[in-house]
Structures are given as structure tokens and as C-alpha cells.
Amino acid sequence: MSPDIQFADDDQAFVGSQQFQDIKNWTHEHLLTRIEELGAEFGRWSRASIQQFVELELDSFVRLQRVPINEREIQLVADALTKELAGLGPLEDLLNDPAVEDVLINGHKNVYVSRRGILTREQIRFSDDDHVLRIVRRILAPLGRRLDESNPMVDARLPDGGRINAVIEPLALDGMSVSIRKFRKDPLTPAELVKLGTFDAGMAQVLEMAVRARCNILVSGGTSSGKTSLLNALTTFIPETERVITIEDTAELSLANAHVVRLESRQGGFDGAGLVSIRDLLRNSLRMRPDRIIVGEVRGAEVIEMLQAMNTGHDGSMGTIHASSPRECIYRLEMLAGFAGYQGSEVSLRRQIASAIDFIVQIGRLSGGQRRILSLSEVTGVNDNVVAMQELYRYEPQVGPDGEERDRWVSLGIAPHSPKIARLRQTLARSTQGTAEGRRG
């Protein structure tokens, strides 16, 4: 084992030990006393000044109290205290790690992290639930959100596009629960998703054609299956000349297009006043001259406005929905429309869905954490009062000679029937023919 790996293992063992927590707590109390003596002056210090202050005070404290730790361990405690006073404490390194997708805190002793779709338990710990609450309140303070007995639950968007959800006692029975979802600063492109194995090049071509042909697409899948990342990637196929309006509960999409209007719903106050729902935003967006409407997640009464928009000239609209299969996606649309008070018959609703939705992309997270498109289906109409679909691609992994599964998408040999794609093919063919004639001339 190399010395660097040995040092790293020793550091992890020390940071996860009770000794580290005790020394950090003792010195933290000492530092808070010194900060009170400094008063307002401390608030004007830079992070570098705070770090220098922590190192000097910690060195003095360790010598006077004869704390049995070496220089390397002193530096680890100093770094932790600097993060505690000037940053986000134990969460800081996790939130700065680009590989981390989710941070989940189940009480102060249990911290889990998702990397590449796989949850693992982290060594870091908080002193107690008050310590967790103090850090979460520090995150929420610039957002103007509160977390206390009168507001025991909070859901907020972070400045970097991430999301935080926190629940405190007595609603959370085993200590404070915190869920932080991170998003990439540079969203994945279709080419990167192909490289990661989310889908193959053949499916990428079909999806690009569907988006450019202004087909209406729903991305269906479960929680943390990669729906938003896929939707974000699909929007890169939208021509730069088009005006795109995104509508979300919590803004997660990050479109690279030039002309984008981002709308986010607003929760109501204690008495419900000031509520602005996704449905309200969708209605208003129709008056904003959109070329395309992107709904971050369809999960309520807005389904009726979305179907009407798709059926009345707003082609090329897209959204995500929670469902376990393309057929379940159709059932969920019907259920949501029923909850929203749809007045027509079941048959007319299914006809609306069939004429509104062109493609359903089913994405899922496999047991190993990989995110894969499981199915690409085209909605073809209504047969015998049932929404008819045809599957164009299906995910069927193949077991290799070494016993390992290899990704494979099977094309069922069916060309998309959508007239929108047929028109695009004709336009491309005319363009290619015109270019060829120009060269011959």
C-alpha cells in the first residue's frame, strides 16, 4: 500500500472517530466564545482570515489543554472548524464533489450519498440534530425560507440549481431528515449520454428527428431514473430560432438554447394566499407566444392544459411524468385528467391523449445504478377505445461469454408513422436534392 493511500485511510478513520468529534466540539465552543469577544469585526473577515484565526486558536487550545493529537490531526480539525464557521460544515466537501448526485441525512449519525445511482454510507457525522439544523438553516437563510416548529417542512431550490428538502421533529420520528439533490453545472448532451450508455446512436438519431419534427414527447420513469437529464439533453435538438418556455415546480432544467423563458411555480402562504400553480403558469404561457412548452414534471391538474396545448398548435412540447411503463404513462395521464375534473367521456379523453402525444420515452435505473432508456414507443391512435402504441426500440441486455451483461437496444424494424416525421424527411430529401443539383449546375 502506498504512503498516500495509508494517510488517506488514517485520515478517514480519525475523522470518523469519536475522538475527532469530541475535540472538534470542545474547540468549537472555545472559538464561539472568542468570536463573541470579537463581535461585529468577525463578520467582516474573509475565509482565509477565518482559517488563520482557527489555526492559531486551535494550536493554542491544544497546547494549553494538552490534547493528544499530532500535527496532521490538528490540520484535519482546523479544516473542519473552518468549514463549520465559514461554510457548510460536514456537507461542504460532499456538495463540492462533482460525482455526488444526492446527499441524504437520516438523523445526525446517518449520512448517505448517491454516486452514479448507487447509495453508499459516508463516514462524516454531525454532532447532533441541532448541528444538522444549524447547517440547513445556513443553506436556507439566503433563500428566505424558514424551518422551525411553525414550518416543520421545507422544499427549496438552491442557487446552483439543486434542491433541498428538510423535515424536522416531530414529523421526522428518528431525527431530522434532509434530502439534497444536486445537478450538473454543465448538463449532459445526447452525445455524452450515448457515451455513458443511456441509449445508442440509432436511438439518438430517431430522438433527434422526433424533436426537430416538432413531435410531442413525454419522458416517463421512476424517481431518480434520469428523466430530467434526458429531457434536458433532448432540448439541445431544438433549433436556436425557436422560443422555448419551461414550466417547473422547482427549476431543474438548464437549457443551452438562446431564447428560453423559465417559469417556476410558487407555494402559497400559511393560508394558501399567493399560490401560483403549474396549471396557472401553463395557461399564462399560451399567451407568451411560445414555439415550444417544456413542462418539468406533469403530476397534477396541468395535464388538461398540456394536452390542449399539444392539440392546438403547440407542437414540439415535452415533459416528464412518473410512470413505470409507456402503458402506465397513458393510464397516469387519464387518472390525472380525471382528478382535474375532466368533463368529457373516457373515449374522448383517450382520443385527446392519442392526438397530443407522439412519443413516450421510458427510462429506468438498473440495479447497478446505470440509467438506461428501456423503451421508445410511438403513440399511433385509438383502437377499440384503447390508446394504441408501437414500440420502436427495446432495451434487451445481452450476456457475454464472460458472464457480464452488455447493453443492447433492439430495433423492432418499425419506422415511425408520425406525419410530422414524414414531412421532415420530405424537407430533408428536397434540401439534399437541391444541393446536389446545385453542385451539378
TrEMBL record:
Pfam families: T2SSE (PF00437). Residues 85-362 form the Bacterial type II secretion system protein E domain. GO terms for molecular function: ATP hydrolysis activity. InterPro entries: P-loop_NTPase (IPR027417), T2SS/T4SS_dom (IPR001482), T4SS_GSP_E_ATPase (IPR050921). Signal peptide: none annotated. Belongs to the GSP E family. This is Pilus assembly protein CpaF. It comes from Pseudacidovorax intermedius.
